[in-house]
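Handout, page 2. Input:
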Amino acid sequence: MSVAPIRPRFELRPQMGFDDCVRALDSAFAQDEVHDFRVVDRHVDVTVTRAHRKLWTPCVQLEFDEDEETGATVVHALIGPHPDVWTLYAVVTLHMILLVVFALPFGLVQITLLHNPWALWIALAGVVGVACIYALSQVGRRISRDETRALDAMVRESLLPNSV
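Output:
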């Protein structure tokens, strides 16, 4: 299993302005009944509709900026799981890490006081839990690989039509 980012990021530099980019994306995803397309200020979210969404279904978040030197549009893209799934992943991971952070010193104090160090087992369970959660995220990334590539291709074809 390859170790890769759970939420890959990339940057695009289309040869059009923000409004033209939004129109291009809207026309690409309007033909597709599977994706929801939402624009908020200079941020675009492309998610899969609830009816078609699975646990590992990816979504794309695009942030549009302007290069101060050239004035060109810069698109910062992030492909990852739906925000609901990402939040669950982050919260569970945080709780496991906090479990380790509090159980490890407690277990060390138990060893120092010559008591039974049962808290070290809790710390070990927290480390194993974090490893399992990360492994599950990699499995999910692999399961959603084709959908991720399709979303990436749709975004790139919409914003960089001449380079494809």
